[in-house]
């Protein structure tokens, strides 16, 4: 039986199970609101099955096997729940004191209904995503259609994340009977498959969206822009050698005699932080060189080249051997040169490069690995073909609370996370870069990326003050340029905020003079923490070292069958398998 046939068979099984469950629910006259809601949800799923059946033979997605498994699990869950309803009903009929029995079992039944409903919701969301993906695959859609579809997919993933987290917390409490804990573990495995399906289709939709934007630039997203009259001044910069101080830093990265421990790694992070912050003037003869936000680069450029002014909207600058691509206002930097990775990374720091704090955090980790092991080994075990090495603003894997080794309150010394500004930041500063700060946290200090800031290693309290100050600052030229864009294109849809530019223009007018007091700022702390949900990575330094050591040994033994990342992933998987066993 091929994948398509197996999936069709599992769809038929799930459909029959849903129909049988509906008949049981109706025949037992279960009329409370929770039961009525459950009936509606199962009916909704049955309709999706019918829609999916029409398109299943068209789909060629690699997720056939996962979908088959999810459909079987849905059908099995319906069958088991139907049996449970019959059992409870029969027990009630045999009991002489029905009223007492009803009171006693009412809460547990309500709990079972609630658990089953949330499972049905997640299955339904996943199957709806599959149906939508088939529409995308076979329909002629506009960019606005894709924005709506992407929103539905993101909501489904959020629902799955919430349920996985909820179940994981129940497991961590260790208060449930063993049999129920095993059922919950099984549910998590199924939900992960649902999640993989949704994430896969989200990537597929993102790819379709990118192709559409490439061919049609009138859908609310600006194309990457050619900036006139910049070639000659940039060529002059590219011909300048690095400063003596920056060159000395590059030479330091070649040293392979350092101890491989976490203190050395932290030393490398702090060294680079000083170069980008408090000691920047010493390392860069020309302030245009090095890393910048697009807005700060445009401001500096316009000061130095007033006859060749540029605006700050949707452009990117990178060294000659790198390419900058802006898709849906998200930046990717890809190395297209032939040199080793150490040389590629040096170019980013030597010449003008526009990036954001997420990309800079990744760069800081890469440079600290170089500082730890030396460029000789670094270039041997991190090898990429032309166009393979990319730094992207999309730097977080979707957060799965059931798939972590320790809690987010871990005492690990090095973390990467996002600290959000006030929820209305983008209304006050439409072109601002301080909506959030991706930071590397070392113990109680935070390394931030802030073009022009002389202090970029902050305590938690200092970071809070910096974010509030950024909110209360007057609007910048970048803000005004973004507002101008809203004014000229009121019908266009913002690709991330999913709102018409006209609506965003009205919000911007309402917050033009808004400032926050310290009390107002503190009152949003919980909300800002919720906004940062999932934007949290913990560096397992010991695993990194083990993966580096294994790759080093494999290289010298001429047995490089796995790269550093595959080794680290395998080490993580073994820990998680032990955890669940």
UniProtKB/TrEMBL annotation:
Pfam families listed in its UniProt record: PigL_N
Top-level taxon of origin: Eukaryota
InterPro entries: PigL_N
Domain Azaphilone pigments biosynthesis cluster protein L N-terminal: 4-171
Record protein name field: Azaphilone pigments biosynthesis cluster protein L N-terminal domain-containing protein
Organism: Penicillium frequentans
Lineage, highest ranks first: Eukaryota, Fungi, Dikarya, Ascomycota, Pezizomycotina
């Amino acid at each position: 039986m091929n994948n398509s046939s197996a999936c069709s068979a599992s769809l038929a099984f799930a459909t029959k199970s849903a129909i049988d469950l509906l008949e049981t629910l109706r025949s037992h006259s279960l009329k409370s609101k929770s039961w009525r809601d459950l009936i509606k949800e199962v009916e909704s799923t049955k309709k999706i099955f019918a829609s999916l059946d029409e398109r299943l033979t068209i789909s060629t997605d690699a997720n056939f096997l996962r979908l088959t498994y999810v459909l079987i699990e849905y059908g099995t869950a319906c069958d088991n729940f139907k049996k449970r309803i019959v059992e409870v009903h029969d027990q009630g009929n045999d009991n002489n004191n029905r009223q007492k029995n009803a009171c006693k079992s009412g809460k547990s039944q309500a709990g079972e209904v609630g658990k089953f409903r949330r499972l049905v919701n997640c299955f339904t969301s996943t199957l709806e995503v599959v149906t939508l993906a088939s529409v995308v695959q076979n329909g002629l859609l506009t960019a606005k259609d894709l924005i709506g579809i992407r929103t539905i997919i993101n909501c489904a993933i959020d629902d799955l994340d919430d349920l996985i987290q909820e179940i994981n917390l129940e497991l961590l409490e260790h208060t449930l009977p063993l049999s129920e804990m095993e059922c919950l573990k099984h549910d998590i495995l199924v939900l992960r498959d649902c999640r993989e399906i949704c994430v896969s289709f989200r990537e597929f939709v993102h790819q379709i969206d990118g192709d559409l934007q490439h061919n049609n630039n009138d859908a609310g997203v600006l194309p990457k822009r050619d900036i006139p009259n910049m070639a000659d001044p940039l060529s002059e910069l590219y011909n300048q050698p690095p400063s003596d101080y920056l060159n000395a830093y590059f030479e330091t990265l070649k040293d392979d005699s350092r101890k491989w421990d976490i203190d050395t790694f932290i030393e490398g992070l702090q060294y680079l932080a000083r170069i980008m912050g408090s000691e920047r003037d010493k390392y860069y003869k020309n302030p245009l060189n090095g890393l910048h936000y697009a807005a700060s680069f445009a401001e500096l450029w316009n000061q130095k080249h007033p006859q060749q002014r540029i605006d700050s909207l949707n452009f990117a600058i990178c060294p000659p051997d790198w390419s900058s691509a802006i898709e849906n206002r998200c930046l990717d930097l890809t190395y297209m040169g032939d040199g080793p990775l150490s040389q590629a990374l040096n170019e980013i720091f030597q010449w003008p490069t526009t990036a954001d704090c997420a990309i800079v955090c990744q760069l800081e980790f890469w440079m600290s690995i170089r500082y730890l092991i030396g460029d000789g080994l670094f270039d041997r075990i991190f090898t990429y073909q032309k166009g393979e090495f990319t730094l992207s603003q999309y730097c977080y894997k979707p957060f799965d609370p059931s798939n972590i080794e320790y809690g987010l309150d871990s005492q690990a010394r090095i973390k990467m996370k996002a600290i959000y500004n006030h929820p209305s930041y983008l209304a006050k500063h439409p072109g601002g870069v301080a909506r959030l700060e991706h930071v590397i946290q070392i113990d109680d200090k935070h390394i931030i990326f802030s073009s022009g800031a002389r202090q970029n290693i902050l305590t938690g309290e200092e970071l809070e003050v910096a974010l509030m100050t950024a909110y209360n600052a007057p609007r910048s030229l970048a803000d005004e340029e973004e507002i101008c864009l809203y004014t000229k294109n009121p019908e266009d849809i913002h690709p991330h905020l999913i709102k018409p530019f006209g609506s965003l223009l009205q919000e911007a007018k309402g917050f033009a003079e808004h400032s926050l007091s310290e009390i107002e700022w503190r009152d949003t702390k919980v909300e800002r923490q919720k906004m940062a949900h999932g934007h949290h990575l913990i560096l397992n330094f010991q695993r990194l070292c083990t993966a580096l050591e294994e790759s080093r040994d494999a290289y010298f033994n001429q047995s490089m069958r796995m790269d550093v990342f595959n080794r680290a992933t395998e080490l993580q998987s073994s820990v998680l398998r032990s955890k669940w066993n």
